[in-house]
Amino acid sequence: MLTPLLLLLATLTCNAGNNLTRAEAEARAATLWASHCAEVAADTVAPLPAPAPFDSVNPCVWHLPDSLEADADMLFALACEGSRPDSGRPLYIYLHGSGPRDAEWSTGRILTSRWAAETGPSAWFVPRIPREGEYYRWWQRAKLWAWERLLRRALASDEFDPARIYLLGISEGGYGSQRLASFYADYLAAAGPMAGGEPLVNNPTDNLRNTPFSLLTGSEDRMFCRNILTARAAEELDSLSALWPGDYIHRVELQQGRGHGIDYSPTAPWLSRHSRRRSPRHITWEDFGLDGCRRRAFANIEPLERPDSIDRIRYDLRIDSLTNALTLTVDAVTYTPTEKDPVWGIALRNERTLRPIDSGSVRIYLDDTMLDLDCPISVSINGRQFPPIRAVRSEATLRRAIDLWADPLRLYPASLTLRW
User: pTM score, two decimals?
Assistant: First the structure.
C-alpha cells in the first residue's frame, strides 16, 4: 500500500506520456478553444442574441429547466451602448428588486440605460425574475443554471470582454448580487450590490480576494438589519484589506440619512474601473452551497473529495513564482452565531472556526505565467513539506480546464493532483 507521500508522487507523474512544450501547449489551447466556441455557437439551448441599442432592443426569453423550477421563463433584454471595442464590450448583469416583476424590470431597463451612458461602450444583460413568491430569489438553482449558461455563452463570444464582466443589483437584486459575488467571484471583474446587506455567512468575504466589491446601503435602512449588516461587511473587508494590501479592493458605505432608496449612480462607474485579475498568485475560496448547488471548481482549484460530514471547506493557495512553490492550507469551516437581532432573528455576528483537514485530495491547475513548469515545484499542504515535483503540460488538462470553467482566461495546460 502506498504511503501518503508516495501516493502524492504517483498521482503527480501519471500523465508523463503526454508532455507538451510551452509552445505546443499554447498552440493546442488555441485550437481547443476555437473548437469549444464553435460548439457553444451551435448549441440551440438558451441562445444569446447580439446586443442591440437600448431604444430598439427586443426582449428574449430563456425557459429554465422544469426539473429546477417549473414554468420558469426568464425574459431578458441584452442592450448595448456605443461601439464595440476591439477587446469586446464590458458586460454588466443587473438584478432587479422584489416588487411586481414587470414594474421592476421596466425600472431596471431605464436605470441601466442611464448608467450605460455614463460608463461608455458596454453591454447590459437585464433579466426579469421568472417567477414571484417563493421563487423570487436570484440565487436559486434554476437561476444558477441561467448564470452559468450566460457565462458560457458570453465567454465564448468575441462580442464581450472576458476580463470585464460585472454584477450589480438593487434590494432583492442586492441580496442576490452579494451572494453571487462570492459564489462566482472568479469570473467577475467587480460586483456592486445596492440597498442590500447579507449576513456574511451567505457571502463569505474571503472569496472576494482579487474581486473588487462595492456595497452601498442607506444608513436608515433598518429593515432586515440591512444597515447593520452592511456595516459588518465594511468591518470585515477593512480588516482583510489591512491584512492583505491590494487583495481586497472594496468600497462599502452607508449613505447617510438615506433609507431603502439610495443614490445608485456611483456604483456602475466604480465597477467599470476594474478588470479581472488573471492568474492571481493568492487564492482563497470558502466552498459553500447555494440552494443545494456547489461549484465544481473555483479559480484554479478543483476539489476531488468533499466529505459529507463537512459542510464548508476553505482553501487558501499561495503561488510563489520566485521559489517555484505552492503553499496550500485546507480547513473545515464552522460558524457559531454570537449576536442575533431580537426582531428578525438574523445572526449579526458569527464566530468562525477553522480546523485543518487531515486528509483529502484536490487538483491545482497551472499555466506558465504562474510558475516555471519546466522546473521542479515545491509543495506544502497544511504545513507539511513534500519533495519537489514536476508538472506536465497535456491536452487532457487543457480539455478539463475548458470543461470546468469555459473561460479563455483559464486555459490551463498543467495540473497537480495533490493527496495528503
Answer: 0.95
> From the CB of residue 309, how many other CB atoms can be counted at a distance below 10 Å?
6
Residue 5 has pLDDT above 80, yes or no: no
Q: Could you tell me which of 173, 223, 170 has the C-alpha nearest to residue 344?
A: 223
284: nearest Cα among 358, 177, 210: 210
Concatenate the DSSP letters of all residues of 24-44 into one string.
Answer: HHHHHHHHHHHHHHHHHHH--
Q: Place 171 in a pLDDT band, splitting at 50, 70 and 90.
A: very high
Do residues 221 and 184 touch, judged by C-beta distance below 8 A? no
Residue found by looking up cell 509552445 in the block: 23
Q: Which of 365, 364, 297 is nearest to 148 (CA)?
A: 297
In 96-140, alpha helices (H): 101-119
**Residue 375, number of CB atoms within 10 A of its CB:** 10
Contacts of 207 (CB under 8 A, 6+ apart): 181, 182, 183, 185, 284, 285, 286, 298
Among 18, 37, 2, 23, residue whose Cα is nearest residue 407: 37
Distance separating alpha carbons of residues 231 and 382, to the nearest angstrom: 33
Separation of alpha carbons 399 and 404, rounded Å? 9
Q: How far apart are CA 21 and CA 53, in angstroms?
A: 45
Q: Provide the pLDDT confidence category of residue 208 given band limits of 50, 70 and 90.
A: very high
- DSSP H helices in 262-302: 267-272
How many whole angstroms from its chain centre is CA 24? 30
Angle between helices 172-183 and 141-155 (to 10 degrees): 60
The Cα 51–Cα 347 span in angstroms is: 42
| pLDDT-based confidence at residue 308 (cuts at 50, 70, 90) | confident
Task: Tell me the C-alpha distance between 141 and 143, whole Å.
Answer: 5
pLDDT (tens digit per residue) in 268-292 = 999 999 999 999 999 999 999 999 9
pLDDT per residue as tens digits for the range 319-328:
999 999 999 9
Contact 147, 291 (CB under 8 A): no
Return d(Cα 204, Cα 201) in angstroms, integer. Answer: 6
Helix (H, G, I), strand (E, B) or coil at 233: helix
CA distance 363 to 300: 8
- 15: pLDDT confidence band, cut at 50, 70 and 90? very low
**Angle, alpha carbons 31-36-37 (nearest 5°):** 100
CA 363 to chain centre: 18
The b/e string for 169-180 (b: 16+ C-beta within 10 A; e otherwise) is: bbbbbbbbbbbb
